[in-house]
Amino acid sequence: MYPFAIGLAFFLPLDLSFSCWFFFVFRLFEKILGSALGFRDARFPYFNEQASGAWIALALVALWVTRRHILDVLKKLVGLGKDIDDSNEPLPYRWAVIGAVLSLTIIVVFCHIAGMSMIITFAFFGIFFLLSLAMARVRAEFGAPHEIYFVNPHDMLASIVGTRRINPGDLTMMSMFYWFNRCNRNHPMPNQIEAFKMSESAKMSNRKLLGAMILAVFVSFIATYWSNLDITYRYGGNAAAGGFKSWLGWEAFNRLQRWMVNPTLTDWTGTSVMGVGLISTFVMTFLRMRFFWWPLHPAGYALAISFAMDYFWFAFFISWLIKYIILKQGGMGMHRKAIPFFLGLILGDYVIGSIWAIVGPVMGIVNYKIFI
Protein backbone atom coordinates (compact mmCIF):
# COMPACT_ATOMS: atom_id res chain seq x y z
CA MET A 1 0.00 0.00 0.00
CA TYR A 2 2.68 2.52 -1.02
CA PRO A 3 0.90 5.93 -1.16
CA PHE A 4 3.24 7.28 -3.84
CA ALA A 5 2.64 4.20 -6.04
CA ILE A 6 -1.14 4.59 -5.73
CA GLY A 7 -0.75 8.23 -6.72
CA LEU A 8 1.51 7.52 -9.68
CA ALA A 9 -0.69 4.70 -10.99
CA PHE A 10 -3.69 7.03 -11.04
CA PHE A 11 -2.07 8.93 -13.91
CA LEU A 12 -1.45 5.82 -16.01
CA PRO A 13 -3.86 4.88 -18.79
CA LEU A 14 -6.57 2.63 -17.39
CA ASP A 15 -5.68 -0.31 -19.64
CA LEU A 16 -2.02 -0.16 -18.56
CA SER A 17 -2.71 -0.06 -14.80
CA PHE A 18 -5.20 -2.91 -15.27
CA SER A 19 -2.70 -4.95 -17.29
CA CYS A 20 0.06 -4.45 -14.71
CA TRP A 21 -1.86 -6.08 -11.86
CA PHE A 22 -3.76 -8.52 -14.12
CA PHE A 23 -0.60 -10.03 -15.57
CA PHE A 24 0.95 -10.22 -12.09
CA VAL A 25 -2.00 -12.36 -11.01
CA PHE A 26 -1.69 -14.30 -14.28
CA ARG A 27 1.97 -14.88 -13.43
CA LEU A 28 0.95 -16.48 -10.13
CA PHE A 29 -1.64 -18.58 -11.97
CA GLU A 30 1.10 -19.90 -14.28
CA LYS A 31 3.12 -21.05 -11.26
CA ILE A 32 0.08 -22.76 -9.73
CA LEU A 33 -0.71 -24.45 -13.05
CA GLY A 34 2.85 -25.74 -13.36
CA SER A 35 2.74 -27.15 -9.85
CA ALA A 36 -0.69 -28.76 -10.44
CA LEU A 37 0.51 -30.39 -13.67
CA GLY A 38 3.63 -31.68 -11.96
CA PHE A 39 6.27 -29.87 -14.01
CA ARG A 40 9.62 -30.56 -12.40
CA ASP A 41 11.57 -27.85 -14.19
CA ALA A 42 12.27 -25.26 -11.47
CA ARG A 43 12.35 -22.48 -14.08
CA PHE A 44 8.78 -23.06 -15.29
CA PRO A 45 7.05 -20.95 -16.49
CA TYR A 46 10.29 -19.22 -17.53
CA PHE A 47 9.46 -15.68 -16.43
CA ASN A 48 12.90 -14.29 -17.29
CA GLU A 49 12.68 -15.72 -20.78
CA GLN A 50 9.11 -14.49 -21.30
CA ALA A 51 10.14 -11.03 -20.13
CA SER A 52 13.23 -11.01 -22.37
CA GLY A 53 11.12 -11.65 -25.45
CA ALA A 54 8.51 -9.10 -24.38
CA TRP A 55 10.99 -6.26 -23.84
CA ILE A 56 12.78 -6.95 -27.13
CA ALA A 57 9.38 -6.84 -28.86
CA LEU A 58 8.57 -3.47 -27.26
CA ALA A 59 11.89 -2.11 -28.56
CA LEU A 60 11.24 -3.39 -32.09
CA VAL A 61 7.76 -1.85 -32.03
CA ALA A 62 9.26 1.47 -30.92
CA LEU A 63 11.75 1.38 -33.79
CA TRP A 64 9.03 0.46 -36.28
CA VAL A 65 6.62 3.27 -35.34
CA THR A 66 9.43 5.86 -35.47
CA ARG A 67 11.09 4.49 -38.61
CA ARG A 68 10.16 7.48 -40.79
CA HIS A 69 11.55 10.00 -38.31
CA ILE A 70 14.76 7.99 -37.95
CA LEU A 71 15.08 7.85 -41.74
CA ASP A 72 14.54 11.63 -41.97
CA VAL A 73 17.29 12.18 -39.38
CA LEU A 74 19.71 9.99 -41.35
CA LYS A 75 18.82 11.84 -44.56
CA LYS A 76 19.52 15.16 -42.85
CA LEU A 77 22.88 13.81 -41.69
CA VAL A 78 24.00 13.30 -45.30
CA GLY A 79 22.29 16.43 -46.62
CA LEU A 80 19.34 14.74 -48.32
CA GLY A 81 15.60 15.07 -47.77
CA LYS A 82 13.66 17.77 -45.97
CA ASP A 83 15.16 19.86 -43.19
CA ILE A 84 13.99 18.82 -39.70
CA ASP A 85 13.70 21.35 -36.89
CA ASP A 86 16.01 20.26 -34.08
CA SER A 87 16.47 23.69 -32.49
CA ASN A 88 15.11 22.60 -29.10
CA GLU A 89 16.58 19.12 -29.07
CA PRO A 90 19.30 18.46 -26.47
CA LEU A 91 21.75 18.13 -29.36
CA PRO A 92 21.44 18.85 -33.08
CA TYR A 93 20.64 15.57 -34.83
CA ARG A 94 23.94 15.63 -36.71
CA TRP A 95 25.97 15.87 -33.49
CA ALA A 96 23.78 13.27 -31.79
CA VAL A 97 24.47 10.73 -34.55
CA ILE A 98 28.19 11.54 -34.63
CA GLY A 99 28.32 11.23 -30.83
CA ALA A 100 26.55 7.87 -30.95
CA VAL A 101 28.98 6.53 -33.57
CA LEU A 102 32.03 7.74 -31.61
CA SER A 103 30.68 6.31 -28.35
CA LEU A 104 29.98 2.92 -29.93
CA THR A 105 33.47 2.94 -31.43
CA ILE A 106 35.00 3.53 -28.01
CA ILE A 107 32.90 0.68 -26.55
CA VAL A 108 34.01 -1.72 -29.29
CA VAL A 109 37.69 -0.78 -28.93
CA PHE A 110 37.52 -1.13 -25.13
CA CYS A 111 35.89 -4.57 -25.37
CA HIS A 112 38.40 -5.72 -28.01
CA ILE A 113 41.36 -4.71 -25.84
CA ALA A 114 39.72 -6.44 -22.85
CA GLY A 115 39.51 -9.70 -24.82
CA MET A 116 35.90 -9.70 -26.03
CA SER A 117 35.23 -10.90 -29.56
CA MET A 118 33.58 -8.54 -32.04
CA ILE A 119 30.51 -10.68 -32.66
CA ILE A 120 29.72 -11.05 -28.93
CA THR A 121 30.40 -7.34 -28.36
CA PHE A 122 27.89 -6.32 -31.03
CA ALA A 123 25.36 -8.94 -29.88
CA PHE A 124 25.71 -7.95 -26.21
CA PHE A 125 25.40 -4.20 -26.68
CA GLY A 126 22.80 -4.61 -29.42
CA ILE A 127 20.54 -6.38 -26.92
CA PHE A 128 21.44 -3.87 -24.19
CA PHE A 129 20.45 -0.86 -26.28
CA LEU A 130 17.23 -2.54 -27.42
CA LEU A 131 16.29 -3.09 -23.76
CA SER A 132 17.27 0.52 -23.00
CA LEU A 133 15.05 1.78 -25.80
CA ALA A 134 12.10 -0.30 -24.58
CA MET A 135 12.43 0.93 -20.99
CA ALA A 136 12.73 4.54 -22.10
CA ARG A 137 9.66 4.22 -24.33
CA VAL A 138 7.54 2.72 -21.53
CA ARG A 139 8.63 5.46 -19.14
CA ALA A 140 8.14 8.27 -21.66
CA GLU A 141 4.78 7.08 -22.97
CA PHE A 142 3.16 5.92 -19.73
CA GLY A 143 5.27 6.99 -16.74
CA ALA A 144 5.32 3.41 -15.44
CA PRO A 145 8.24 2.08 -13.35
CA HIS A 146 10.86 0.54 -15.63
CA GLU A 147 12.65 -1.76 -13.19
CA ILE A 148 13.19 -5.18 -14.79
CA TYR A 149 15.00 -7.94 -12.93
CA PHE A 150 17.21 -10.56 -14.57
CA VAL A 151 16.41 -9.49 -18.13
CA ASN A 152 19.84 -8.84 -19.57
CA PRO A 153 22.14 -9.61 -22.51
CA HIS A 154 24.24 -12.11 -20.52
CA ASP A 155 21.45 -14.59 -19.85
CA MET A 156 19.87 -14.11 -23.27
CA LEU A 157 23.13 -14.87 -25.08
CA ALA A 158 23.86 -17.82 -22.75
CA SER A 159 20.44 -19.31 -23.60
CA ILE A 160 20.42 -18.59 -27.33
CA VAL A 161 24.05 -19.34 -28.17
CA GLY A 162 25.06 -21.64 -25.31
CA THR A 163 28.05 -21.02 -23.04
CA ARG A 164 29.97 -23.91 -24.64
CA ARG A 165 30.10 -21.89 -27.89
CA ILE A 166 31.21 -18.65 -26.18
CA ASN A 167 34.91 -18.38 -25.33
CA PRO A 168 36.03 -17.74 -21.71
CA GLY A 169 37.17 -14.18 -22.46
CA ASP A 170 33.69 -13.27 -23.69
CA LEU A 171 32.03 -14.91 -20.68
CA THR A 172 34.36 -13.08 -18.30
CA MET A 173 33.70 -9.67 -19.86
CA MET A 174 29.95 -10.31 -19.90
CA SER A 175 30.20 -10.98 -16.16
CA MET A 176 32.25 -7.82 -15.66
CA PHE A 177 29.39 -5.85 -17.25
CA TYR A 178 26.81 -7.32 -14.86
CA TRP A 179 26.91 -4.19 -12.65
CA PHE A 180 24.85 -2.11 -15.11
CA ASN A 181 22.56 -4.94 -16.25
CA ARG A 182 21.33 -6.69 -13.13
CA CYS A 183 17.93 -5.06 -12.68
CA ASN A 184 18.08 -1.69 -14.51
CA ARG A 185 16.43 0.18 -11.63
CA ASN A 186 18.94 3.02 -12.05
CA HIS A 187 19.05 3.03 -15.83
CA PRO A 188 19.77 6.65 -16.87
CA MET A 189 17.90 6.71 -20.20
CA PRO A 190 14.28 6.68 -18.91
CA ASN A 191 15.11 9.29 -16.27
CA GLN A 192 16.87 11.56 -18.76
CA ILE A 193 13.91 11.37 -21.18
CA GLU A 194 11.59 12.28 -18.31
CA ALA A 195 13.78 15.27 -17.43
CA PHE A 196 13.69 16.53 -21.02
CA LYS A 197 9.90 16.19 -21.05
CA MET A 198 9.67 18.24 -17.85
CA SER A 199 11.98 20.81 -19.45
CA GLU A 200 9.69 21.10 -22.49
CA SER A 201 6.62 21.54 -20.28
CA ALA A 202 8.36 24.29 -18.30
CA LYS A 203 9.56 26.03 -21.52
CA MET A 204 13.19 25.48 -20.55
CA SER A 205 16.05 24.99 -22.98
CA ASN A 206 16.83 21.30 -23.46
CA ARG A 207 20.39 22.17 -24.44
CA LYS A 208 21.01 24.04 -21.19
CA LEU A 209 19.49 21.11 -19.30
CA LEU A 210 21.87 18.74 -21.12
CA GLY A 211 24.79 20.87 -19.93
CA ALA A 212 23.51 20.65 -16.36
CA MET A 213 23.18 16.86 -16.69
CA ILE A 214 26.76 16.50 -17.95
CA LEU A 215 28.03 18.61 -15.04
CA ALA A 216 25.96 16.52 -12.60
CA VAL A 217 27.45 13.31 -14.05
CA PHE A 218 31.03 14.41 -13.29
CA VAL A 219 30.14 15.69 -9.81
CA SER A 220 28.33 12.41 -9.10
CA PHE A 221 31.31 10.34 -10.25
CA ILE A 222 33.58 12.06 -7.74
CA ALA A 223 31.04 12.01 -4.89
CA THR A 224 30.10 8.36 -5.44
CA TYR A 225 33.65 7.01 -5.67
CA TRP A 226 34.74 9.01 -2.63
CA SER A 227 31.74 8.04 -0.46
CA ASN A 228 31.92 4.34 -1.36
CA LEU A 229 35.63 4.10 -0.64
CA ASP A 230 35.39 6.17 2.54
CA ILE A 231 32.48 4.23 4.04
CA THR A 232 33.89 0.83 3.09
CA TYR A 233 37.35 1.53 4.53
CA ARG A 234 35.91 3.28 7.58
CA TYR A 235 33.48 0.52 8.59
CA GLY A 236 34.77 -2.52 6.70
CA GLY A 237 33.44 -4.35 3.69
CA ASN A 238 31.18 -6.72 5.61
CA ALA A 239 29.57 -3.87 7.51
CA ALA A 240 29.13 -1.35 4.71
CA ALA A 241 29.13 -3.27 1.42
CA GLY A 242 26.04 -5.40 1.89
CA GLY A 243 22.95 -5.61 -0.24
CA PHE A 244 23.33 -4.55 -3.85
CA LYS A 245 27.14 -4.33 -3.74
CA SER A 246 27.54 -7.90 -2.52
CA TRP A 247 24.83 -9.28 -4.82
CA LEU A 248 26.64 -7.91 -7.85
CA GLY A 249 29.82 -9.73 -6.89
CA TRP A 250 28.64 -13.19 -5.98
CA GLU A 251 25.82 -13.35 -8.54
CA ALA A 252 28.08 -12.35 -11.44
CA PHE A 253 31.07 -14.51 -10.67
CA ASN A 254 29.32 -17.55 -9.22
CA ARG A 255 27.40 -17.65 -12.47
CA LEU A 256 30.66 -17.26 -14.42
CA GLN A 257 32.02 -20.24 -12.50
CA ARG A 258 28.96 -22.31 -13.49
CA TRP A 259 29.38 -21.27 -17.11
CA MET A 260 33.04 -22.35 -17.04
CA VAL A 261 32.65 -25.60 -15.08
CA ASN A 262 29.36 -26.76 -16.63
CA PRO A 263 29.15 -25.27 -20.13
CA THR A 264 25.85 -25.67 -21.95
CA LEU A 265 24.59 -25.70 -25.52
CA THR A 266 21.59 -23.75 -26.78
CA ASP A 267 18.71 -23.81 -24.32
CA TRP A 268 15.97 -24.56 -26.83
CA THR A 269 13.21 -24.47 -24.25
CA GLY A 270 14.28 -21.08 -22.88
CA THR A 271 14.83 -19.68 -26.37
CA SER A 272 11.39 -20.90 -27.46
CA VAL A 273 9.77 -19.18 -24.47
CA MET A 274 11.56 -15.95 -25.44
CA GLY A 275 9.85 -16.35 -28.80
CA VAL A 276 6.50 -16.85 -27.03
CA GLY A 277 7.01 -13.62 -25.06
CA LEU A 278 8.02 -11.76 -28.21
CA ILE A 279 5.06 -13.02 -30.28
CA SER A 280 2.59 -12.44 -27.44
CA THR A 281 3.71 -8.81 -27.21
CA PHE A 282 3.42 -8.34 -30.96
CA VAL A 283 -0.08 -9.85 -30.94
CA MET A 284 -1.25 -7.66 -28.05
CA THR A 285 0.22 -4.58 -29.74
CA PHE A 286 -1.65 -5.39 -32.96
CA LEU A 287 -4.94 -6.05 -31.14
CA ARG A 288 -4.59 -2.84 -29.12
CA MET A 289 -4.05 -0.83 -32.31
CA ARG A 290 -6.83 -2.64 -34.17
CA PHE A 291 -9.57 -2.77 -31.53
CA PHE A 292 -10.40 0.15 -29.25
CA TRP A 293 -11.98 -2.12 -26.66
CA TRP A 294 -8.96 -4.44 -26.26
CA PRO A 295 -8.18 -4.29 -22.50
CA LEU A 296 -4.67 -5.78 -22.29
CA HIS A 297 -1.61 -3.60 -22.74
CA PRO A 298 1.66 -5.25 -23.92
CA ALA A 299 3.74 -3.01 -21.64
CA GLY A 300 1.76 -4.29 -18.64
CA TYR A 301 2.65 -7.85 -19.64
CA ALA A 302 6.35 -6.97 -19.93
CA LEU A 303 6.38 -5.15 -16.58
CA ALA A 304 4.45 -7.79 -14.64
CA ILE A 305 6.48 -10.84 -15.68
CA SER A 306 9.85 -9.11 -15.16
CA PHE A 307 9.24 -8.53 -11.43
CA ALA A 308 8.72 -4.77 -11.73
CA MET A 309 5.25 -5.29 -10.25
CA ASP A 310 6.20 -7.44 -7.25
CA TYR A 311 6.16 -4.40 -4.96
CA PHE A 312 3.51 -2.37 -6.75
CA TRP A 313 0.81 -4.75 -8.02
CA PHE A 314 -1.65 -4.16 -5.15
CA ALA A 315 -1.10 -0.40 -5.19
CA PHE A 316 -1.80 -0.47 -8.93
CA PHE A 317 -4.94 -2.54 -8.34
CA ILE A 318 -6.24 -0.06 -5.73
CA SER A 319 -5.50 2.89 -7.99
CA TRP A 320 -7.03 1.22 -11.06
CA LEU A 321 -10.21 0.37 -9.13
CA ILE A 322 -10.60 3.92 -7.79
CA LYS A 323 -9.95 5.47 -11.21
CA TYR A 324 -12.36 3.04 -12.91
CA ILE A 325 -15.15 3.92 -10.44
CA ILE A 326 -14.46 7.66 -10.75
CA LEU A 327 -14.58 7.58 -14.56
CA LYS A 328 -17.61 5.29 -14.59
CA GLN A 329 -19.65 7.34 -12.11
CA GLY A 330 -18.40 10.90 -12.55
CA GLY A 331 -16.60 11.05 -15.89
CA MET A 332 -13.64 13.29 -16.67
CA GLY A 333 -15.00 16.11 -14.50
CA MET A 334 -14.71 14.05 -11.33
CA HIS A 335 -11.37 12.69 -12.54
CA ARG A 336 -9.96 16.23 -12.78
CA LYS A 337 -11.25 17.04 -9.28
CA ALA A 338 -9.50 13.93 -7.90
CA ILE A 339 -6.10 14.82 -9.36
CA PRO A 340 -4.93 17.04 -6.43
CA PHE A 341 -5.61 14.21 -3.96
CA PHE A 342 -3.41 11.74 -5.86
CA LEU A 343 -0.70 14.34 -6.38
CA GLY A 344 -0.86 14.82 -2.60
CA LEU A 345 -0.28 11.09 -2.05
CA ILE A 346 2.92 11.30 -4.10
CA LEU A 347 4.16 14.57 -2.62
CA GLY A 348 3.28 13.69 0.99
CA ASP A 349 4.93 10.27 0.86
CA TYR A 350 8.14 11.62 -0.67
CA VAL A 351 8.38 14.72 1.53
CA ILE A 352 8.04 12.71 4.76
CA GLY A 353 10.35 10.01 3.40
CA SER A 354 12.94 12.62 2.50
CA ILE A 355 12.81 14.12 5.99
CA TRP A 356 13.38 10.72 7.57
CA ALA A 357 16.20 10.05 5.09
CA ILE A 358 17.97 13.11 6.53
CA VAL A 359 17.09 12.44 10.19
CA GLY A 360 18.33 8.83 10.10
CA PRO A 361 21.95 9.42 9.04
CA VAL A 362 22.28 12.61 11.12
CA MET A 363 21.10 10.88 14.31
CA GLY A 364 22.59 7.50 13.44
CA ILE A 365 19.32 5.59 13.70
CA VAL A 366 17.42 3.17 11.49
CA ASN A 367 14.02 4.63 10.64
CA TYR A 368 11.10 4.75 8.22
CA LYS A 369 11.89 4.12 4.55
CA ILE A 370 9.17 4.91 2.02
CA PHE A 371 10.02 2.09 -0.37
CA ILE A 372 11.03 -1.54 0.34
Structural notes for this entry:
By secondary structure, this protein is mostly helical. The protein folds into 2 domains: 1-40 and 320-372, no CATH class; 46-311, no CATH class. The chain has helices at 3-10, 14-36, 47-65, 67-77, 93-113, 118-142, 153-160, 168-176, 188-201, 206-235, 237-240, 244-261, 268-290, 298-305, 313-363. α3 (47-65) packs across α13 (268-290), α8 (168-176) runs antiparallel to α12 (244-261) and α13 (268-290) packs antiparallel against α14. It is globular. The mean pLDDT is 89.
Indicate the structural class. mainly alpha
Give the C-alpha Rg.
23 Å
- Subunit organisation of the chains: single chain
Report the span from N to C terminus: 11 Å
Total domain modules: 2
- Ranges where pLDDT stays below 50 over 5 or more residues in a row are none
Work out the helicity level: over 70%
In N-to-C order, the SSE pattern is HHHHHHHHHHHHHHH
The largest β sheet comes out as: none
The geometry reads as: globular
Number of DSSP helical runs: 15
**Percent of residues in beta strands?**
under 5%
Mean pLDDT: 89
- Number of DSSP E strands: 0
